[in-house]
Amino acid sequence: MLPKTGAGGVAQDSDPLEIQVSAGCEVRPGNTSEDFFHAAVQGEEILSFQGSHWVPAPQAPRWVHRATKELNKDQGTRRTVRELLRDTCPPFVRGLLEAGRSELEKQERPEAWLSAGPAPGPGRLRLVCHVSGFHPKPVRVTWMRGEQEQRGTRRGDVLPHADGTWYLRVTLDVAAREAAGLSCRVKHSSLGGQDMVLHWGRSRSSAWLVAVAVLGSLLVIGCLGCSAAWCRARRSYQDIL
Questions:
Q1: Higher-confidence residue: 180 or 4?
Q2: Nearest 5 degrees, angle CA 126-CA 131-CA 137?
Q3: Among 65, 72, 157, 178, which lies 20 to 30 A Cα-Cα from 186?
């Protein structure tokens, strides 16, 4: 519990104040690190630990300066804080990073496809862009016309798959006559800076082409089958004669 201060930094009796403490270390390449320890009251920093001493903040009240002098007299505590920040924290953080490196570096490319959702009204379309199987989780999916992002794009929740990858759907409601020329753009770290772009008109045309090709193949196979059956029937009839 710390006292409030009045004019001139004179301590006054009051209710307990909230104290915030931020302490730890940042590890950097080259086996270097930087430690930090900051203390604040009601969101205002009052002191920090620098090197091997406690240092009051520039705008700290007078009682903090007096408290800092007393803290610096305790050499045992200062030594313990220094060892925790400089000797214990960096190897601990590096160990955590090494243990999770495979997960941190995991990259899975997304798969994406377009579909039409339930019509939002007469003469309107709901365009749906599905993105699935990507990792890590951060991804940016937008409906575009050329290089202009379309207003009204609605992004769903990023949902997990059982294998640790993610799924997202992004929708856009438009007038049916305005759907041509729209595209869905996917940005993800696994794509190496090469955005994935799916064009609404082209994707649907491609789907129709695939359907026509499949139907045509089935018709050809059916015709060949009928021809073969007719030939066998004719040969059998001739044998009977």
A1: 180
A2: 130
A3: 178
Chain-centroid distance, C-alpha 99: 21
pLDDT of the residue at 72: 95
CB 17, CB 4: distance < 8 Å: yes
Band of pLDDT at residue 142, cut at 50, 70 and 90: very high
Q: Which helix (H) or strand (E) holds 91?
A: helix 89-99
Q: Which helix (H) or strand (E) holds 67?
A: helix 62-73
Pair type for strands 154-155 and 148-149 = unpaired
- Cα 142 vs. chain centroid, distance in angstroms? 15
Report d(CA 68, CA 50) in Å as an integer: 12
Tokens linked to 230: 């007719």
Tokens of 139: 């991804």
Contacts of 190 (CB under 8 A, 6+ apart): 107, 108, 109, 110, 134, 135
Q: Structural domains in the chain?
A: 19-105 (3.30.500.10), 111-200 (2.60.40.10)
- Rounded Cα distance between 71 and 37, Å, is 14
CA–CA gap between residue 198 and residue 204 (Å, rounded) = 10
Tell me, what amino acid is at 10? V
